[in-house]
Every structure is written in C-alpha cells, then in structure tokens.
Amino acid sequence: MSPASEMGGGSTVGYALAELIEMANGGLITPELTYNSTLEFPYGEKSYLIGGFFQKFLADSSWDR
Length: 65
Prior knowledge:
Number of helices: 4
Largest sheet: none
Shape: globular
Low-confidence stretches: none
Mean pLDDT: 76
Structural class: mainly alpha
Number of domains: 1
C-alpha cells in the first residue's frame, strides 16, 4: 500500500508527500522551519506538511497498539 493511500488517498496527499521528500532530500527541514517564532498565522504550508507527516509517523510507530 502506498503512503498516499494509507493516508486517505487523493492527489493532495501525493503532492504533500512529494513536497516533503523534496524538502528532506534538499536538507531544507530545519528546526527554524518547524516552529513559528513570529507568532504569525498561518505561516506557510511547509510547516504543516512536516507536522502532518510527523504525526502520521508517530501514530504508525506507536507502541500502544
């Protein structure tokens, strides 16, 4: 099963996963990108992509199954 279909499918998930992989491969995921130091909302799509896939990672790797 593909990661996109595991998350509910759809072209949006595929795009989001591709964007996240591109950022990771380019070394663009930094601590500064993952928090909002300016307290502005919304603060871009990339932080939400990282957070969403991190939440999925945590859910998939949970020891409480």
